[in-house]
Every structure is written in structure tokens, then in C-alpha cells.
Please model this.
Amino acid sequence: MAERVLLLAEDDQMLASLLQYRLEREGYKVIMTYDGRAVKESLQSALPDLIVCDIMMPYLSGIELVDFVRNELNSDIPIILISSASNDENIISAFEMGANDFVAKPMSPSELLVRISREIKRHYCS
Amino acid sequence: MHLEKLENGLDSFSFTELKSNEASKLKKSFESFKNGLEEKVFGLPSDPIALPENTDAIATATPRERALVAEVSHEIRTPLNGIIGFLDLLKETSLTQEQMKLTTAMDAASKNLLELINEILEFSKLASGQEKFECVPFNIFNLVNEIAFLSKTLINEKEVQFHLNFDNNIPSILLGDPSKLSQVLLNLTGNAVKFVEKGEIRLAVNLKEINNKRAFLEFVISDTGIGIASEELKSIFDTYRQTATANAINYGGSGLGLSIVKEIIDKQNGCIAVSSALGTGTTFNVILPFKRTQISKTESGKDTPTTANPILKDKNILVVEDDPITQRLMETRLRQWGGHSYITDNAFEAIRLLEKERIDLVLLDMRLPAWDGMEIAEKIRKTFPPEVLPIIALSADVQRYENWANQKTLINDFILKPYTSEELAKKMQENIKKTIPRQDKQPATISAQKDIPSDTLVNLGPIFKECLGQKALLEELLRLFEQNILEFVGKTKMHLQSRNFQGIGFAAHKIKASLKMLRVHSLLQITEEIAAECKGNGNYDRINTLFEAFLTAYPKVEIAITREASRIKNQ
Model:
């Protein structure tokens, strides 16, 4: 199986580092981005196999990201959002826009790993 | 003669027979005693506005007269300390509301009087050349930071920002009198805090000139306060002068503060200047020479116990001290060193705490308002022998220090003021090491203790598990956590200034995740409240208070994290 490329968009460096370690250990190639502008730039140069994105990012909300991927890049790659308890409404709008899944903060990296591999199987192996 | 009578009278005075109208009379006589005393010492009416131009009684007095003033002030202090002490006891009896009000007023009046006498004593000592100046190595950076910290704690509810600028070219270790320097700086920043309602206070420390032997430092204390009128500015350093009566009423103080500051600076061959404009603010410039030392820079580095270094890990320290600033400073230092502090200025309370809590060491100020240090030590020794509970005495009195040799059964060790944090840390460590562990296995009770035990402050277990046991990764994450906290603090400070509540809300929301990962519930709760408060219209005061609470709580968390991390590392 080819190495899967993940785009991780998380502005909390601490969480990002932990996730990077866990994802790379699982054999993913991880592109790290820390704000909305970097996310857009990265997506415009090359599309990853999956996006994990914090719903609250500087310069770009999760909803805007989903809108950008689905409607401007016209891509259906899986998007998993990282949310926190206080943005229930945003999650619903994000799903309406076409997000695939979400994990809530405080998040367990192990749970995120399971969700990622499930989305990848669903999208690329069926 | 009179003083002895007064003292004897106080000894036999019975407060239980005191009726409220009598208490009221007593209060009045205290006030007239205070006024009379002021007149006696200064030869002035107590209304400063009616002062003739040149009546600086102390400044113009002969050395003999000054020595007399010093002696008399000292004599007055003893019975006055008695009065204050008994008032404290009186307040603990069952009083009616009216009686309580009266005793509180008496208490305030006598404390004012004590403060006045202390200042007179200090000033006359300085003026008559009795006061000796130290010449010891000290860390100027730490000292200035401590002053900045203390000044910030004085600001309380006001919308005042405190800024510190420290010139990095200043050698970190200098020779001089650190306690006198602290006194000068605290007096000036303290004044600024008093006179600024809203705005900012700046303390800048610059290197004015340096050669092989000396460094000339310039301290600039500027504020955006009410300012001083030019005609009052001329006499600002004169003895016993406070600008206009209205200020004396609003801001208290004996008016000797700046004279003392000037005297301290003059005696060290420094100079002080002031410039001010009404309504715009005031700036004090102080230039002081310090000798340079050969001690290398590394010795002043981060390994000194002044920085967070848990040398007193989990130790309970009883601090018997009455000066609120020293109390606060002690509390901060002990906390930085990982200890818990119990602070009181009352001998009975001290004994009660010793019986109730597992105290590892007592820091005893030898001069309290109502008690002599030796009396307290004797009381403590009735129950706790010196091998089990070390007592370290703190005093500026050289005589006492010399007598201490005969009192080693009561007092284990003695620290002569002024002392450095390093000295304090070293003596505390040494004395705790020497003690025999106590037999009773009863765990320390938490109830009377304000601090939450640090182990419950943070739980690194879950995140370490997510790191799959990678210690290096955990360390990296903790470093990032600290960075996140600093970022949050910085952003919140900035947004508070511009009242950008949405920005604060966003920052608070972001930091929540990190706090949850390390299970820092205390800070998490505060942060959640901040985030919730920012969702509405945002109440500045409330958010500010919460933010202050965050800043106060964080150092404890930081220590707990360091401790937990090193525990995990050594597993």
C-alpha cells in the first residue's frame, strides 16, 4: 500500500506535535500546517489523501475549509474536523457542507487514528 | 518616666470591663495622643497646610537631638506595641457591632501611629549616621523583578499596567545594599501605585556608566498619575511634607517616605530628581553607584534557588511575620521552592497551627507588634524540641544576633536582615536536613491550607500514555504547553488593553485543549469562565479578575508539572 499523505491543520503546537508523532508512527506521511493560509497554500499545491483540521483556526474556520475543498477544489477527499464542546452548531454546518467525521477535544489520539483509518478504508479501499 | 507609667497602666488594663462609650473615649484620647506626639516631635500643628516654610525639625536638628528622637521613638514603640497587641486580643472577644467598629478604628489609629514612629526612628537613624549600609553581592536582575512583582500585587483593582524595562548590559551581580535599594524602589513604585487611578507605571533600569570598579545605574520610575504642582515639587524631599492636606487624607502616610528615600540615596553618593506636571504624571530619576564584583556570571544563573527550584518540596513552613509585604514575599518565595506556607502575626495562632498542621520549620520575625520573638520561641519549645522543629529567627538587630549564642536551645538558626533569597534557602535546607523525622504518621491536614496539594493540580499520566511512553516527546509537549500558556497570557494582556473580548475568548478557547490534555482542572475552570464571560458583552472587571486568578494559580501548576515530569522521567 502506498504511503498515505495526511494534511494536519492544528494551530495548537502541543497537540499538533503529539498527533504528528502518533500519525507518523502509524506510517502516514504528515504535512503540518498551523494556520488557515498555510492550509490553503498546501491544498492548492497538492491534495493529500485526507485532511485533519481544527475547526477553529486563525484565518480559516473548519466550515470555510470544507467549503473551499468541496466547492473550489471540487474534491471529495475525507475531512475530519477537530472540534470542542462549544461549537456544536459549527459541527452541524460543517457536516452539511460535507465534512466526513469529527473528534471532540479533549481528544484521544488513539480515537482519531481509528477514525482516520476508517475514513481511508471507506474512501480508497471500497 | 511617663512612658513607664503608661506601660504599667496598659499591663493592668482590663478590656472585659470596657463599655462602648468608654471605648469611644479611649479612641479619642488615642487620637489626641497621636496628634500631641506629632506636635511634640516636630513642634508643628498637625495641619500641614498651616506649616511655616522652614520647620524641618529633624533635618535641622543637631546629631544629639536626632539621637534623642531615635531613642524616644524607640521607647514609645514598646507600649504602643502593647496597645496594638491587646487590641488584637480584644477583637477576638465577643463584641457588639458598635464595639467592633470602635476597636477597629482604634486599631487603625494605633497602627498609623506605629508606622509614623517607625518612620521617624528610621529617618533619625539615617540622618544621624547610625544606620549602616551593607556591601554584599546581590543579583540586581532578581531584585528588580521582585520589586516589579510586589508592585503589581499592590495594584489590585485599578486599571493600571506595570511595565519593567531592564537594560541587559547591567552586570548581573553587583555589590551594595540590596535591602536599602528595595526600600527605595518599593517606596517610589508604591507611591506611583497610590497616585495612579488608571494608566501605567514604568520602572526602567538603565546602565548609565560603567568602569572596572563601579557601575552607575539609573532607575526611572514614571507614572501617568495625578502629578505634583510645581510649587509643591520644590519641597517634595523635605522632611515631613505631604502635598496638600487633601492628599494626606486620601492616601495616608506620614510624609516621611520620600525624605527617607532621599537620605538613603544621599548616603550612598547617589542622586534623585523629580519632574512632574499636574494631571500628566510624575517621573523620579535615581542614580546610584554600585561596586562591581569578580564573581562570574554563571553563579547568578538559573540554578539559584530564587527561580522555581523545589528545594522545599512538600514542606510546610510556618511564617510568623507581621509586615504584609514581607508576608507576601515569603509566600511567593516558599511557593517557588515548592513549599506550603502558613502565615500569621499572632503567637496564639502560631501555636494553634503548630498543633494542627505538620509544620517542618518556623521562620520567626523577632519583632512583632504584640510579642517578642523569644517569648514565642519559648512557647513553641514547651511542646516542640529543637531537634524536631527548627526555628529560624529573622531580625535586623545585631545585638540580638550576638545574644543568640546563648539561646541555641530556643532558636536553631539566625538570619540577620537584610538577607538574600539564597541565604534564606540555604539556611532552611540545612535546618530541615538536620531534623529528626517525627513519629506521628498522621498526614498533614489540608483543611486549613489554602493551597491545593500540587499533585492534584496536574495529571500527566494520560498524556504520557498517549506519548506511548516516549519521555522525550513528553518533554517536548510540556515545553510547547508552556509556550501555549505564555502565548495565552500575552494575547489576553494585549486584548484586555484594547478590550477585544472576542480575541480573549478565542485565546481562552485555544488554551483549554492544552489544559485538558494535562488535566489542569484549576486553570481549566478559570479559562472556561473567561471564555463564557467573553461570549456575552464582556465585563472587563470580571475578565480581568479571572485573568489575575489565572496568573496567580499558574506558578503552582508549573511547579507541579515540573515535579510530575521529573517523577515520570525517573521511573
